[in-house]
Amino acid sequence: MRRLTLVLTMVTILAGVAISAASVRGDDKAPAGKPPVTNTVCPLMGDAVSPKVRVEHDGQWVYFCCAGCVEMFKADPAAAIVKMSDADREAIKKNTKCAVSGEEITSFDVRSEHEGRFVYFCCASCKAKFDAKNAPK
User: Most buried residue, 39, 101, 106, 107, by CB count within 10 Å?
Assistant: First the structure.
């Protein structure tokens, strides 16, 4: 009986740790249930990424498999990015042409988040057009 109590106590503690770890995120505003559209592989562990575990780096979201990887990434982003595939490195870059007009973007201060990715615009007018077209229905 004492062994069963000890096992149940340990299971309860481990479950609490797992729940606490799951609630720690790189960004609490990540879209729930939507797959990420930037990198698909964690740059540190090589595992599939979670749409809820992400951090902004150089103007775009980088996704991870767990919150621990976010902290390791923050310590040395360049080392982690070097390990990414060419496709994932390309996916975490900012768009350099306006998503509406196609004009070159000179200042990256006008943006919207769309489907788990930042989209940049040349002006507020283009942003407004994009947001109106892509508003949730």
Answer: 39
CA dihedral 35, 39, 41, 43 (to 10 degrees): -140
- Identify any residues that bridge with 41 across adjacent strands, giving them in sequence order: 48
**What token pair was written down for 100?**
């509406």
| Residue 61, helix vs strand vs coil | strand
> What residues have CB less than 8 Å from 88, skipping those under 6 apart?
38, 39, 40, 41, 43
Its pTM surpasses 0.90: no
- Per-residue pLDDT tens for 77-110? 999 999 999 999 999 999 999 999 999 999 999 9
**Would you list the DSSP string of 64-103?**
-SSHHHHHHHHH-HHHHHHTS-HHHHHHTSPPSB-TTT-P
Q: Which helix (H) or strand (E) holds 54?
A: strand 54-57
Residue 116 confidence (pLDDT) above 70 = yes
